[in-house]
Amino acid sequence: MDQTAEIQRHMAFHLTGAPGGDLESVDFAARPALLAPYRDLAALRYDYPVVLVDDAVDEACVSSLTTLVDHMLRDNAPRGVEGERVRRSVLRAEREIRRLVAAGARGILSDLWAQAAPDLADETEHLNVDGEVADCDAELPRRVVAHAWHSVQRQKARRFHADVDRLVQALSDILRAAFIHSEPGRRPESLQAAFGSLHSDQFDFDMMSRLLGRSSPRDELPPDRRERIERALEVLRRQRFFDPAPGSSSAQSPEPPFEYRYTSCRAAVDAFRERLPAVVEFVKAMSIAELEADGRYVGSQHDAFFQSFDENSLSREDLARFPDYLVCVHGDESGAVIDLLSSGLPVKVLVETEELLAPEHFGVHLRSTQLASTVIGLMDVFAFQATSSSLYQLRERLLASLRYTGPTLLSIFSGPSSASSDLPPYLLSAAALEGRAFPAFTYDPEAGPDLASRFSIDENPQPELDWPIAPLEYADASLQRVVEQIPFTLVDFAACDRRYARHFARIPREHWSDETVSVDQWLTLDPAEAEARVPHVLVVDDNDRLQRLIVDAKLMHAARRCRELWHGLQELGLAHRHLAPALLDEAPPEPLEPSVAEVPGAAVAAVAEETAADDPWIETPRCSTCNECTGINDRMFAYNDNKQAYIKDPDAGTFRELVEAAESCQVAVIHPGKPRNPDEPGLEDLIERAKEFQ
Amino acid sequence: MTPLLRQCLIHMAEDHHSLEDYEGGVPRWCNGCGDNAILAAVQRLCRGEDLSLERTVFVSGIGCSSRFPHYMGTYGFHGIHGRAFPIAEGIKMARPDLDVFVNTGDGDCCSIGAAHWIHAIRYNMNLTVLLHDNFVYGLTKKQASPTSPRGLRSNTTPRGSYLEPLNPLSVTLGVEGASFVAQAVDWIPQVLYDIIAAAHQHRGFSFVRVIQRCPEFMPGMLDPWLQDPSKTLLLTHENGLQLEPDLARIYTHHREHDPLDIDAARRLASSDDDIPVGILYRNPEVPCYEELRGAGQARPADRIRASLEAELDKFTVWPASDERAAA
Fold first, then answer.
1. What is the pLDDT of residues A608-626, one digit of tens each?
2. In sequence order, what are the residues at sequence separation of 6 or more whose Cβ sits closer than 8 angstroms to the Cβ of residue A1?
3. Is the pLDDT of residue B119 over 90?
């Protein structure tokens, strides 16, 4: 097949999705090239699993296992050899727990610890905390949100109980004082009961009663006030909004507390409506109690007000005293969710999204990112959008959203079922965030007066760019280390999922050419130019070999749409920098230079790129570190992290040095290429000598 | 990856060391010397296994190879000629928790230290032994060693050496108690690394003969093997060496060899033509001497501490009132 025919075949696949010619279907488990190094997550220390710490507040309620272990070791591991032994054992235990949890084990940290490292069971006491261990899987959003919600409600409950106890105490004191001053309170048996049994035989309580009856003013509570106070006390004591606090004076309700967790919007609204009279009654009782406690209740002023007190009298601050409703639904209830949020009720709605791209209708299904954007228009709804992989990093924002006094939307991508991908759920979820398929953002109505200060997309990687860029390090066909900066796009995210395999076709390595362009470049072409070019994406196969896949037009359309949606968020999110239009027009800024050490192991993908025959090169993996070349010129030749030579700067020396290095290399891995300086003396002889090593 | 994901994916950092952490002095070996390759492989191993600098010891005798401990950032003991093994054994008996490596040369091990070598094999203590075999005494400027090829003209054999060379592999495999015997060459870095790593993982006396070039005194001796990869016989096995595809394409001469088969190992060790590279023999069942003798139990930490306190007390200046009491 000649080259033109190949290009036509590539174009035909791009347009129609029909493979043919040299193209091969993607029958291997492809993974984006940038994710190549992350094969075994259990061997890495990262944010997951997390521990949902019992009885903790604020950020500490969700803690990474790694962080807990680090803190434990920092505080408890002895110095020196013994400490080293403890450290290694504990880190082994951590790795084993990670493996157990990844394999589906559930339970609390202390149990898993005992299972993972029975010999280190004593160390668990140094952890100081315990709680359920949760890995980054489909259930994570629900578990973490519910746990954080519980934590926030616990804090609320503490404030609530403190207020109620204070008021109950104050009202009880009023009643007790009135009783003491009353006729029954001055009876001898009451006085004796108040005095207690000790030394009671030394007092004449009859005499005391008579004396007190003569000297005390008659100041009994007016009946209507007594009734008001007693009714308020009754309401306060019988509240069912929070679990009764141990020892609390409000723990007298015979009925169980209300349930606040629901799985449908309708049920939550119904529950709210049903409890509204009780809420009104309670707020009324608290207001009366406050006034009575301060002695500021004036019947002529307040009676009329409290008689007409109803649900319309409730303010947001009043409702904020009560628990928030937590509603967990899936993405297909978005209509009901918007209705619920727009009602202004104190609800926290968790919407879990499992699918972002339906194989048939990419465009339609990208809507899932729209829900959170839509509720921003409601102005007073806190919107928090994230992927499950970023929940730990964004836990502070998550807690802020749950503390918000008004309605909150928590839109979280939990990832499709693992059956559709070979990647662990954490990576899949991270890929959705990196590929802008499910961007993270927050809209906090209390953060400032304008949209710019309320809306933030800073949670995303490199938010100024269309797509985040990261270095890809690999060995090319000549086993040379190559580092390229490549973007992570929606197409990379789609490549993780086997269900989209038919939107890709593999180009055999020998047919790679400059005729295909990378996805991000293709998206920046003007439409006329794009029609003539075929986009490709880099992935690795099961053997970590780099592959180029052609992407069909349907998927590219989805990628274009995704990019447009991202631009929309960028305009909002970068507005506070007053640079949004300028930034979007400008060339993207250079990404930070990444450190090789940050990539755990080089991606060992081999690629059949043509190395320019004129450039000098070294078969680095075969270098035996004999110092011959570095001894000749250590600016031109240098050692890499494995102490094997590569050409650091071909212009840092002469062609003669290159040829001499090639001649003296014991394992003949240096190839001098062609002279770079045509004026170098003795070139003719050197070129002849170099021939042997080309 | 981009910062957010990168923050999450922290490489397993159990006190993570870089290769530079294991570097000691600047090597003074000749350019082109195979010792450099062995040094690089060992430093990579230390990094790969994340060995503690303070719990790793390199012991050597005398010779070019025995300068090795100077170039490591760990503890080291540059011993006396032929006595690397007893020193290493002493360290292991006193501190069985340490990782102990022995670097010895063909002269140091196979000539003056031969008796210690034989008995070190018998003891099967948990040591990683690297025999740097360049077929010549290099430090003393070219004298014939026990492994020098017959006919080598050197300062001590001006008419050529008269004897056939000693084969360190055959000797080791012939001693009762041998538990790990392997051969590597310095010019295939990945295989060298893999073999040293396997030796380090083995619990017992891991003997690795590394055939290395000496460009100064034996130039060209190994060129036939360097220039023709098919002359190097790579021994592969699921329990032994496993080649990466790229390497297997270059070194096409492989053979499956089960490291448990000592008879096959002895035949391979004594073959003349091809250089066998790989794990010839491995038997994890051989008991280690330090375990048989309960090494380390005689010196528990509290006793060491008490002895140190007693020693330090000798130099303590006691207050006048306590002096009598102390006396």
1. 343 455 789 998 888 999 9
2. A9, A21, A22
3. yes
Q: How many residues does chain A have?
A: 694
Chain A neighbors of B37, CB-CB under 8 A: 624-626
User: Does A587 reside within a domain?
Assistant: yes
Residues in B closer than 8 angstroms to A456, CB to CB, are none
Q: Structure tokens of A360?
A: 């048939």
A437 inside domain = yes
Q: What is the DSSP letter of B201?
A: H
Residue pair B102/B128 in contact by the 8 Å Cβ criterion: yes
Is B273 an interface residue toward A (CB < 8 Å)? Answer: no
- Report the residue of chain B nearest A48, measured CA to CA: B8
Contact call for residues A569 and A370 (beta carbons, < 8 A): no
Predicted local distance difference test score (pLDDT) of residue B10: 44
Q: What are the pLDDT digits (tens) for A575-590?
A: 555 444 444 444 444 4
For the four alpha carbons of B76, B80, B81 and B84, in that order, the dihedral sign comes to negative
Q: Are residues A389 and A136 in contact, defined by beta-carbon separation less than 8 angstroms? A: yes
Check whether residue A394 and residue A491 sit in a common domain. yes
Closest CA to A136 of A476, A486, A403, A386: A386
Type of residue at A11: M
φ/ψ (deg, to 5) at A314: -75, 130
Q: Check if the beta carbon of residue A153 is closer than 8 Å to that of residue A346.
A: no
A631 and A487 in one domain?
no
| Chain B residues within an 8 Å CB radius of A606 | 246
| A378 part of a folded domain | yes
Per the CB < 8 Å rule, is B40 touching A642?
yes
Which residue among B14, B31, B188 places its CB closest to the CB of A91?
A: B14
Nearest residue to A145 (alpha-carbon basis) of A272, A328, A356, A267? A328
The tokens describing A157, both together, are 């409950």
User: Domain span at residue A682?
Assistant: 617-693
Give the count of Cβ contacts less than 8 A between chain A and B.
Answer: 128
Chain B residue with CA closest to A460: the answer is B4
Interface contact B26, partner A, CB < 8 A:
no
Whether B19 sits inside 8 A of A434 (CB atoms) is no
Amino acid identity, residue A114? A
Q: Quick check: A21 and A11 in contact, CB under 8 A?
A: no
Question: In this complex, is the C-beta atom of B218 within 8 Å of any C-beta atom belonging to chain A?
Answer: no
- Helix (H) or strand (E) holding B129, with range, is strand B128-133
Does the complex come out with an ipTM higher than 0.85?
Answer: no
* A70 Cα to chain B: minimum distance (Å): 10
Region label for A220, one of left (φ > 0), alpha (ψ between -120 and 50) or beta (otherwise): beta
